[in-house]
Write a structure and sequence with these properties.
With 235 residues, this protein is of the alpha/beta class. The protein folds into two domains: 7-125, Response regulator (Rossmann fold, 3-Layer(aba) Sandwich), CATH 3.40.50.2300; 137-231, Arc Repressor Mutant, subunit A, CATH 1.10.10. It has helices at 15-27, 38-47, 64-74, 89-97, 110-129, 162-172, 181-188, 197-214; strands spanning 7-11, 31-35, 52-55, 80-84, 102-105, 137-139, 142-145, 150-153, 156-158, 179-180, 221-224, 228-231. Helix 2 packs parallel to helix 3 (64-74), helix 4 runs parallel beside helix 8 (197-214) and helix 6 (162-172) crosses helix 8 (197-214). The longest helix has 20 residues, at 110-129. 34% of the residues are buried.
Length: 235
């Protein structure tokens, strides 16, 4: 399945940015729905979800963070990217912690934004592009199904985003092996040059929290000071 021609929703209150992004997406062959405020966007999303949502944090009537929370409650696989003028680390990390897959700060290059959209759509489509020959990955009580992007721990379903699944898969594929943040970036963002270390840390924090939601004793993702992370399990 091609990433082109997918429906991308833009929630952005700055008209010039909204129109510029919409034009760039249309040139890439995508369909676009654009909204100037969060309440209007949510009314549309409640009826039907797009293939990707691009959210500005500071939109009126319902901000991007609340929109992200609501969208993530509806779908764990929907790609979500924040586009924001807020430079503070708090906002970017918070966005990732509540379920966004990526973020881009204003001012940004339209080429960079289109590249990130392409990557997120490609990863979002991967679940239907993969073949049944790909077998689940089992690491102790953890089972990851690459075909369906589904995760279970001790038989209980764990709802992960596509990015979280790919990152956990990178760790679980080689239990006991320390993976650097750069290696985890490659696993979770195979088509991206780099993301920040803090982004990886935020995703790991969310994965831990979700696994602890089904098993409060979960402690299999270990931080290795100065190196990265590893997944441990007992036979």
């Amino acid at each position: 399945m091609s990433a082109a021609g997918r429906l991308v929703a833009i929630v952005e209150d700055e008209e010039t940015i909204r129109e510029a992004v919409a034009s760039a997406l249309k040139r890439e062959g995508h369909r676009v729905e654009a909204y100037a405020d969060g309440a209007e966007a949510w009314a549309a999303f409640a009826a039907s979800l797009p293939d990707l949502a691009m959210l500005d944090i500071g939109v009126p009537r319902m901000d991007g963070l609340e929109l992200c929370r609501r969208l993530r409650a509806r779908s764990d696989s929907l790609p979500i990217i924040f586009v924001t003028s807020r430079e503070e680390e708090f906002d970017r990390v918070l966005g990732l912690e509540i379920g966004a897959d990526d973020y881009l700060c204003k001012p940004f290059s339209m080429r960079e934004l289109m590249a990130r959209v392409k990557v997120l759509l490609r990863r979002g489509a991967a679940a239907v592009e993969r073949t049944p020959a790909e077998q689940p990955i089992t690491a102790g009580d953890l089972v990851l199904d690459p075909l369906r992007f589904s995760t279970t721990w001790k038989g209980k379903q764990v709802a992960l985003t596509v990015t979280e699944f790919l990152l956990l898969q990178s760790l679980a594929a080689r239990p006991g092996l320390v993976k650097t943040r750069e290696q985890l970036m490659t696993g979770a963002y195979p088509d991206r040059v780099s993301v920040s270390d803090r982004t990886i840390d935020s995703h790991v924090k969310r994965i831990r929290r979700k696994l602890q939601g089904v098993d409060p004793s979960f402690d299999r993702i270990e931080a290795v000071y100065g190196a990265g992370y590893r997944f441990t399990h007992t036979e």
